[in-house]
Design brief:
- The protein is α+β, with helices and mostly antiparallel strands.
- The protein has three domains: 3-111 and 149-160, Aspartate Aminotransferase, domain 2 (3-Layer(aba) Sandwich), CATH 3.40.640.10; 114-145, no CATH class; 163-293, Aspartate Aminotransferase, domain 1.
- Helix content is 39%, strand content 14%.
- It has helices at 3-12, 33-43, 100-110, 122-125, 150-160, 163-184, 212-215, 219-228, 244-250, 258-266, 278-293; strands spanning 20-21, 46-50, 58-61, 64-67, 76-80, 93-96, 114-115, 138-139, 190-192, 199-200, 206-210, 267-270.
- Helix 1 runs parallel beside helix 2 and helix 6 runs parallel beside helix 11.
Length: 294
Amino acid sequence: MDPAELEKVLKRDTGRKIKTIIPVHLAGQPSELGEIYALAEAHGALVVDDACHAIGARYRYDGREYSIGGSPHAAMTAFSFHPVKHVAMGEGGAVTTANPEYRAKLERYRCHGLQKEAFVNEEMALSPEGETNPWYYEMQQLGYNYRLTDIQAALGDSQLKRLGLSLKKRNELAEYYRQLIEENLPVGTVRPLVVRPDVLHAYHLQVVLIDFEKCGVSRAAVMNRLRREGIGTQVHYIPVPLQPYYRQRYGYKPGDFPEAESYYEKALSLPMYPELERSDCWKVVNELKKILES
């Protein structure tokens, strides 16, 4: 999310219809959260950041360092524990907040909307002696079963202890990828995403931008040839406004989000995980070089 573009959008929102701003820390690099928060606060909107790629990431703002999910620049932060994430629990996720009111609401939503205090039906809640009936609860709002199982939580707790090592290894691999790309691939054909100097990148993804048209080969052909060499790649992601649901609901069409679409046309995610070896990175870049130069 570009703060300058966000500012333009907020200025157009004279009716203050925008209530929540949701920046995504794509690939693991923190958004410019401090700047986004300042704009949101001035507009009277909340910031809820999507940190599904960015557990453990950090950023600097106004001379101080903050951690994603533990900073004052978001009302709530969402994390993912999908099997491919840094901390894997099989599935599920978590939301962090420093706001007691939001925490209480989240806890109720997480467990069927149940509440065991501040009752509405006091005649049902209280015994003749004026004490709370020990079995009593109320469902004051609709909630679901969003709880992690104890087994998942135990797995996640153990994996959190490895997070620091995972981040260190991922950053080392990303730097090695960068060196290999600069040394082996023609200038202007392949480049990693730009990383700001004031962040600790979590590198959930190793995304490169490839000028497929200049190279004279389609992305599908590149991915299929890499797969035949035992190298899995992916595209993260198809722009949300181009999905049928959003086209039908809001009338979006190709060209409405030029920056997202330009990124999508060039993006390719290379293998990235802590157990990856430098020799694996070399093989990936070497095979990519063969394909693009053939």
